[in-house]
Each structure stands twice: as C-alpha cells, then as structure tokens.
Amino acid sequence: MFDKVLIANRGEIALRVVRACREMGIRTVAVHSTADADAMHVRLADESVCIGPPAAAGSYLNKIAILSAASITGANAIHPGYGFLSENADFAEMVESHGFTFIGPSPEHIRMMGDKIAAKKAAREVGIPVVPGSDGPVESETDAQALARDIGYPVLIKAAAGGGGRGMKVARSPSELVDAIQMARTEARTAFGNDAVYLEKYLGRPRHIEVQILADAHGNVVHLGERDCSLQRKHQKILEESPSPVLSTEDRARIGEIARSAISRLGYRNVGTLEFLYEDGAFYFIEMNTRLQVEHPVTEMVCGLDLVREQIRVAAGAPLGFSQSDIRFTGHSVECRINAENPNTFAPSPGRVGSYHAPGGLGVRVDSALYSGYAVPPHYDSLIAKLIVFGANRDECLMRLKRALMEFVIEGIETSIPLHMRLLDDPEFSAGNYDIHWLEGFVARNT
To answer: Quick one: 418 exposed, middle or buried, by C-beta within 10 A (0-12, 13-18, 19+)?
Structure first.
C-alpha cells in the first residue's frame, strides 16, 4: 500500500480523497493555487504545496508543478480526482514515467475513451449498443448531408474531443445542418484545440443512464448498478439518483451485465462509468468517463462501498475483495449538486460565505469543503457542495431530501438550493417522469 498520496485537485473532491486516505492510514499532500491557500483540503491534508496562481492553467493544470510537488514531498501516488487532469492521458503517462502511480486507468484506456469516435468504435467491438451515427469524423458538408439523410433528422453534431456540452449542436433539417456543423467546429476548436466533429441520431426524450464499473489488474470486474442523471441543463448534471425510477429489473440487470462484460474484454483497470441514452427500452452508448464521477456518492449509498478506497487499493495492485454476486443494492439515493450561482439565471455567485450550517440526521451526507468565512473563488467550477440522501425507497428518500434542503444554510452567496426545493415540489419530478430535456422547460416555466 502507498505511504503518501498527492491529490491533484481542489474543493470537495480533494477533501473526499483526504478522508479516504486518512481512514486507510495513508498520508496526504494537498496542492493548491494561491487563491486556495485557506481551502479546507489544504488545512486537513498532512502536507501542502502551492503550485501556482489562481488561474487553473498555471496551477491545477500545471503538470510540471504537480509532479515537482510529488517529488519534493516523497509521494508514491497521485490521485487526480475529477475534472482538471483526471482524464488527461499525457499526464497519466508523465506520472508513471516519473516513478509515481497514477490512481486511475491506464493512459491507453484514457486516450481511447477520451476520443468519442474511438470510444464508440471500441464499444461496438465489445458488444455495446451505440447511437446510430457516423463511424468517424465528418470530412465534408456533402458527406454530412448524405449521412444525415441516412440517419434521419434531427441529428446531433458532437465534438470528437472534450465534453461538457461544448461543440454540440442540433440540426433539425437540412437547412440547419451546415451552420450547425460550422458552429460546432468553431466551438470545439476553441475549447479543445480540435475541430473534428461527428454525427449522431438525436433522440427525442431519452433518459441519461450511467453504469458504474470497478475493475482490478487481476481480471476481476464488477458493476455497481446504474445512476439516472437525466436532470441536466446545457448538458450539465443538476441532480442524480440511484436506482433509476424508470428501469425495470430486467433492463437493470441487462445493462449492468453488458457494461461489466465489455469492460472485462477491454482489460480496463480502476473505476469507470459507461454512459448511455435510454429510450423505449433500448440503451445507446454515448461515452465512457475514465475517472471518479461527481455523483459517485449515490452509488456508495446504495451498495455500501467506498469507491475512493477501492480506487486506491486497485492502483496499489490489490485484487477486489468481492465478486459480482457479493454486491447487494438496497434503498434509494439522490444527490443534489449545490452550486454557487443564481438559482434562476445560473450566473456564478462567488464571494465570502457568512453563516454556514450543513444538514444532518439519518441517511444524510454532505460532501463539501465550505466553512463560515471561506471565500468562494471566481476562478473555478461553481460546485461547492453535494447533498446526498438515502432512504428505504424513493418516496422516503425525497421526503428526507426536502427536509435536509430546508436545513441547509449557506449565507453570503447565492446557491442552487432554491432550484432543488422547486424541483421537489413538482409532481412530474416526484413521479420520476422526466428526461434529459425536461429541466430546461421546468426552468423556463418557473423563473
């Protein structure tokens, strides 16, 4: 096992890793920008190193600074968290080549799944159903027009690299296609330095279903059930739950086994998440995230495993201590992402936190690095807390979630807590009757 782990991240996920390491008897090193000198993960880690200025490009994305920090502190391994360098294959290669262990999958698998076209090709080869679309990048407008006719409108133009909804446009007719491709290319080039795009069939009312996978270096692979992540705004998730309220027992078992078998054939190692669109009883693979997900706590709540602990054990070469038949799913869990932003306009709301009180009680978990007096910086993602609630069933879980949201106090900045309160009062959400487009309409009706 590792003696010391450097955490190449910030905020609640860095604190999450600190806690897991401490419970395993592993010392931790926090890295931070000058803007995060007073951050909670810096305060609670065993050691800390300042790696640059507030801008992420000079700090949390500075590969050389992070590796230097690992070297001078004597760390054995680097945990990338999520975001920043967590899915950067070049960084993973650098970590390994400098004698550290990267707590994640191999650079080869990160690179494969980071290219969405290559990921779809790999998915087809291991038997995963994919959304109908192009086999590779669209080279010309003529090719795009012919392919769109074959697929059928509407079609979705997507960037081959990157994610987060950037480089993604919808064309509902031939007259919209050329402009949509040009806009997607421009956006992708700006965001990712790669303007390659491909086409997919645009599904009308799909759910976003993802399957959590855990695999070791000894050929053992398990799936840890699914999460429903359909509540999204501009392709950014707002709320996640497990299990999905719309999957049948048969569909749940089917997609879990498809994911588990495919990952086994790929020879993948560590945690990973296969993401699907689900409509009319059919699953379509869209991408794989080769890292820990923001929403991993809902899986932990329903299956009773610590995914960060398992990540570290697997990276250290240990085999899984259980098989698929040992996994038991109980109850229901929902996660609300609490962002520092206006709940109506979604404009960022950085600033100093005044009074702060986290909810508690049976089945309530808060993953956050906030504290009273902390200044939320304007330089990073607006996620400041995750409220995760567990209940014996979905109805109990939602009642507990509403109670917990009523207890949550974050003063001094605007947050998305009022948005979540409105969601819980909506009968369609309470019935589980929503899809990936539903939240946009809900926000328009309620602001």
So the answer is: middle
Tell me: pLDDT of 447 over 80: no
What residue has token string 């599904």? Answer: 203
Give the span between the Cα atoms of 192 and 194, in whole angstroms.
5
The amino acid at residue 292 is L
Q: Is residue 134 predicted with pLDDT exceeding 90? A: no
Q: Look at the domain 132-201 and name its fold.
A: Dna Ligase; domain 1 (3.30.1490)
Catalytic residue among 291, 337, 365, 400: 291
For residue 232, the cross-strand partners are 237
Q: What is the pTM of this model?
A: 0.91
Closest C-alpha to 432, from 406, 386, 397: 397
CB under 8 Å to 242, separation ≥6 — which residues? 225, 226, 227, 228, 298, 299, 301, 302, 332, 333
Can you give the pLDDT at residue 324?
A: 97
Q: Please compute the mean of the pLDDT values over residues 193-199 and round it to a whole number.
A: 90
Known catalytic membership, residue 291: yes
CATH class belonging to 207-445: alpha beta
| 4-100 CATH choice from 1.20.140.10, 2.170.150.40, 3.90.640.10, 3.40.50.20 | 3.40.50.20
